[in-house]
Amino acid sequence: MTSIILAIVIGAAFGAVLDRIGATNPNWIGKMLSLKNLHLMKTILLAIGTGSILMFAGQMIGLVDVGHMSVKTAYVGVFIGGLLLGAGWAASGFCPGTGVCAAASGRKDGLFFIAGGLLGAAAYMVTYPAWKASGMLDAIAGGAVTLGTVPGSKYEGITGMSGDILGIILGLAFVVVAFVLPERPMGGGAEPVPAE
């Protein structure tokens, strides 16, 4: 029960931060994807970079249990699904997390987005046997692998590099890019108006 309460508290805090930075406003998403205002992209890169640095440094010094690391299996369907997610994100202005947060903040378009996502998930479940038979769900590149080898994890690395060091380097690169990117590279114009 404690873990459920903790998940609700952390999820609510995360949702509040997403709403505060504008991630629940499709106008902000559209401006980011059209490269007119990169405020949101800079925030995302900074968060991913900081999280990567903290996680991999924590693993190196023993503060983070490597057993908690989860790597998803690579297969062709994942890449196609990623492209579909990106297209849906661009068309709707929401990704799954921001759509739920938008609905929680009272946006009706967020509710329609959730309904569409549930309908899509149901369609996938119904057609799953066909996708499985197509071979698109067969593991590629060794299945669940990492770029570098992380000591104590059950995943193989595809390079001889230390996964922890590589994770920290990539995290630092994301942080640097977040600070170097211009806020409005394509002349963003007026700021989007928040939802009422």
From TrEMBL:
<feature type="transmembrane region" description="Helical">
    <location>
        <begin position="39"/>
        <end position="61"/>
    </location>
</feature>
<dbReference type="InterPro" id="IPR007272">
    <property type="entry name" value="Sulf_transp_TsuA/YedE"/>
</dbReference>
<dbReference type="Pfam" id="PF04143">
    <property type="entry name" value="Sulf_transp"/>
</dbReference>
<keyword id="KW-0812">Transmembrane</keyword>
<protein>
    <submittedName>
        <fullName>YeeE/YedE family protein</fullName>
    </submittedName>
</protein>
<feature type="transmembrane region" description="Helical">
    <location>
        <begin position="73"/>
        <end position="91"/>
    </location>
</feature>
<feature type="transmembrane region" description="Helical">
    <location>
        <begin position="111"/>
        <end position="131"/>
    </location>
</feature>
<feature type="transmembrane region" description="Helical">
    <location>
        <begin position="163"/>
        <end position="181"/>
    </location>
</feature>
<keyword id="KW-0472">Membrane</keyword>
<keyword id="KW-1133">Transmembrane helix</keyword>
